[in-house]
Write a structure and sequence with these properties.
The protein has 283 residues and is an alpha/beta fold. The chain has a single domain, classed as 3-Layer(aba) Sandwich (Rossmann fold), CATH 3.40.50.150. It is 48% helix and 19% strand. It has twelve helices and seven strands. The chain has a seven-stranded mixed β-sheet with strand order 3-2-1-4-5-7-6, sandwiched between helices. Strand 1, helix 3 and strand 2 (87-92) form a beta-alpha-beta unit.
C-alpha cells in the first residue's frame, strides 16, 4: 500500500474509532437484518448476528488460531476468540485501534491468547501456514491491490483452513446492466474519497482472484438486502445530541464521514453498492 493511503486510513480510524465505540459500540461493521432485510432488531444485536450468520454460512464449527484482518477495536476478534476458546490475532493500520483493542482484550482477561498489532494486510508479518481461520470483515475495500491482499490471506492460512471474506463491492458489470455508468462512477468516487478507499471491485472479480490465488471449494453470496438497513439505522442514531457533540470534537474527516452516510444508503438503494461474501479453503 502507498504511504499516503496508509496514513489516510490510519488517520481516519485514529480520529473516528473512539466516537464510533461510544455511540455505536465495538463492532465496526454492518448488521444482519434477515435475508430480505426485514428483521426489526437492535443494531448491536444485528452486528453480532452478522458474525454468527457468516460462521453458519461458512460451516465453521471449531477454530484454534485465527487472524482478524482489519480488526478495528477488536469486536470480531474478541467475539470469535471467546466463542471458540481460540488464539487470535488482530491487525489494523490504526495505532489508536490497536491500543484500544489491546485494552479491551485485557478487560476481558484474554490478553494471553489475543494479540493486536499495527500491520499491513498486504504484507503480513506472519509465517506461512499459520492460521486455521483468516477472517476479513469489511477491510478488503481498503486494499489497493486486491490480488496481493488475497495472496497474503492464502499464504498465512494453514492447509485445511478457511478464509471468510465479506467486503463492499460494486455491482457486477457482466450482466445486462453492463459497464458502470458515468453517474455510478461519480457516486463511487465520492464514497472512495470520504472513506479512504482506493476503489472496490465486483464479487465475480474477487472469485476469479481467489481461484487464481489457489483457494479451493470457493463459494460466494450477495447479502446486500440483508445488510442495507444498517445505514439508515446509523443515520438515525447520528442525529442524537451525544453523537453530534462527539462529531464536533472528532475533526473534519469524521464529520464528513457522518455527513456522507447517505452515500452508502443510496448506493444500496440503486443497486450500485453490494455486500459480497466469499469463502475458500486451502489444500
Amino acid at each position: 500500500m502507498s504511504v499516503s493511503l496508509d496514513q489516510k486510513i490510519a488517520e481516519f480510524y485514529d480520529a473516528s474509532s473512539e466516537l464510533w465505540e461510544k455511540i455505536w459500540g465495538e463492532h465496526m461493521h454492518h448488521g444482519y437484518y434477515g435475508r430480505s432485510g426485514n428483521y426489526k432488531i437492535n443494531r448491536r444485536q444485528a452486528q453480532i448476528d452478522l458474525i454468527e450468520e457468516l460462521l453458519i454460512w461458512a460451516k465453521i464449527k471449531t477454530v484454534e488460531n485465527l487472524i482478524d484482518v482489519g480488526c478495528g477495536i477488536g469486536g470480531s476478534t474478541l467475539y470469535l476468540a471467546e466463542k471458540f476458546n481460540a488464539k487470535a490475532t488482530g491487525i489494523t493500520l490504526s495505532p489508536v485501534q490497536a491500543s484500544r483493542a489491546t485494552e479491551r482484550a485485557k478487560n476481558a482477561n484474554l490478553q494471553e491468547t489475543v494479540l493486536f498489532q499495527v500491520a499491513d494486510a498486504q504484507n503480513m508479518p506472519f509465517p506461512d501456514n499459520n492460521f486455521d481461520l483468516v477472517w476479513s470483515l469489511e477491510s478488503g475495500e481498503h486494499m489497493p491491490d486486491k490480488t496481493q491482499f488475497l495472496q497474503e490471506c492464502y499464504r498465512v492460512l494453514k492447509p485445511g483452513g478457511t478464509f471468510i471474506f465479506a467486503t463492499w463491492c460494486h455491482r457486477s458489470t457482466n450482466s445486462l446492466a453492463g459497464e458502470l455508468t458515468p453517474d455510478e462512477k461519480r457516486h463511487l468516487e465520492e464514497i472512495y474519497r470520504v472513506y479512504c478507499l482506493p476503489g472496490v471491485i465486483s464479487l465475480p472479480e474477487y472469485e476469479t482472484i481467489a481461484f487464481d490465488c489457489g483457494f479451493k471449494d470457493i463459494y460466494s453470496d450477495d447479502w446486500s438486502m440483508a445488510v442495507a438497513p444498517f445505514w439508515d439505522v446509523v443515520i438515525d442514531s447520528a442525529l442524537d445530541i451525544q453523537a453530534i457533540l462527539g462529531l464536533l470534537k472528532s475533526g473534519w474527516t469524521t464529520i464528513e464521514g457522518a455527513l456522507s452516510l447517505g452515500l452508502m444508503s443510496r448506493g444500496y438503494q440503486r443497486g450500485l453498492i453490494r455486500f459480497g461474501l466469499l469463502c475458500g479453503k486451502k489444500d
